[in-house]
Design brief:
Blueprint (H helix, E strand, L loop, with lengths): L17 H10 L8 H15 L9 E5 L2 H11 L7 E5 L8 H5 L3 E5 L10 H15 L5 E5 L8 H11 L3 E4 L7 E2 L2 E2 L6 E5 L12 E5 L2 H11 L22 H11 L2 H19 L5 E3 L7 E2 L5 E5 L9 H10 L5 E2 L15 E2 L3 H8 E4 L7 H15 L3
Parallel strand pairs: 2-3, 2-4, 3-14, 4-5, 5-8
Antiparallel strand pairs: 1-9, 6-7, 6-11, 8-9, 10-12, 12-15, 13-15
This protein binds pyridoxal-5'-phosphate.
């Protein structure tokens, strides 16, 4: 692939070290879903998310085949089953919610607040109260998301969850390297989820990880991820497991990627700084920025809101098309789950926030191959499109 031909949102970018780890795996014939690269990658991830925080040393990481698999295993380990309800942020990618269906449970969607675009603490409280009134039971878990790498209002959300004693699953698939009050996203919930799909902050071509509260929970996660085989001399099963472990080849890519994660983060944040600066000069385009110094987003994708009253009559759709003509990829924001036909019957506590964001928002090229000049060109073009001709 020639990255310079088209400016993409977030194209994978290799350090060059990936091949060494893969070659080692071939040399030692570790071409299986376990091995030294899996162990090494898990260690690298743990070191990264706990760095500078010895009090987080109890966290343990399980490398898995996908972020979606990590969410699924978190729900399995929390005992989510048929008849249960799980609260989920509505404004997200479908993979945050679909594992609730895999478990035969029912998602209850909660809208976002406008500052972080993530779950509203007050609507979360309302949703829990409403579901207890309707069903006589508490929701079994709460899935919060750090969308586009912007940390959610973690303290407020955790306070509500704690008050009702409901465990939190923290979908940090887009938030590797994002910090809240100096601590890495994925370390706040009972479980944290990371994704290494092709276009995320780092890639293993496909993969994910489950951040577990302790070694014993991680052991249970790996047990379920490897077909739930009991410790007997023959294959013996008490429960249904899954085939969710990461391959030792993919983990080799992950180890190589960990050597340039800091560079990737710096690059995403540098592009965000350019978009922030250029859009600061116009009132029709709002750059989605850290709402306070508590948050340090990774800007996995830089995103903007376009004021529908702009004199150029530009809409996210028209901007997306105009930029596509210039060989620039942009994307509308995630369409909220409560607006999806798949989830038409799911209870939802909404106030119009995510619907309004979806109507006005756009994701901009933000990855390692995008140059500062390209970002400036893209931002200038968007301002042109929003200005009267
Ligand atoms: C990518 C993503 C996932 C799923 O991760 P995969 O590794 O693609 O399965 C889950 N949640 C969010 C918010 C994502 O962006």
């Amino acid at each position: 692939m020639k990255p310079e031909q088209r400016i993409l949102l977030c194209l994978a970018h290799m350090s060059g070290r990936e091949r060494e780890y893969i070659d080692e795996a071939f040399a030692d014939n570790w071409v299986v879903p376990l091995g030294p690269n899996v162990d090494g990658f898990e260690k690298d991830l743990k070191n990264f998310i706990t760095a500078g925080h010895p009090e987080l040393d109890h966290l343990e990481v399980a490398a898995l085949s996908a972020g979606t698999a990590a969410i699924h295993l978190a729900l399995v380990l929390l005992g989510v089953g048929p008849g249960d309800e799980v609260i989920c942020q509505s404004f997200t990618f479908a993979a945050s919610a679909n594992p609730v269906l895999y478990q035969g449970a029912r998602p209850v969607f909660v809208d976002s607040e406008a500052s972080t675009w993530n779950m509203s603490p007050s609507l979360l409280r309302r949703a829990i109260d409403e579901r207890i009134a309707a069903t006589g039971r508490k929701p079994k878990a709460i899935v919060i998301v750090h969308l586009y790498g912007m940390p959610a209002m973690i303290d407020e959300l955790l306070a509500v969850a704690k008050e009702y004693d409901i465990p939190v699953v923290e979908d940090a698939a887009e938030a590797l390297g994002s910090c809240y009050k100096g601590r890495e996203c994925s370390t706040f919930g009972r479980f944290g989820i990371l994704s290494f799909n092709g276009n995320k902050m780092i890639t293993t071509s496909g993969g994910g990880a489950l951040v577990c509260p302790d070694a014993e929970t991680r052991r249970r996660a790996v047990f379920y991820a490897t077909q739930a085989r009991e410790d007997r001399p023959y294959y013996h099963h008490l429960v249904a497991g899954f085939n969710y472990r990461l391959s030792n080849i993919s983990a080799g890519i992950g180890r190589g990627q960990m050597t340039i994660l800091d560079d990737h983060l710096a690059h995403h944040r540098a592009l965000a700084a350019i978009y922030r600066e250029v859009f600061a000069s116009v009132k029709w385009v709002e750059f989605h920025d850290n709402p306070s110094t508590d948050s340090d987003a990774n800007f996995w994708l830089s995103t903007i809101l376009i004021d529908p009253a702009n004199p150029g009559g530009a809409t996210p759709m028209s901007v997306m098309q105009a930029l596509a003509d210039l060989n620039v990829e942009t994307r509308l924001l995630w369409k909220p789950m409560h607006m999806q036909p798949l989830y038409a019957d799911a209870p939802a506590v909404t106030d119009g926030t995510s619907e309004s964001l979806f109507e006005r928002g756009l994701c901009l090229p933000s990855g390692p191959w995008v140059t500062p000049d390209q970002a400036r060109m893209i931002a200038t073009k968007i301002i042109d499109l929003c200005s009267a001709s």
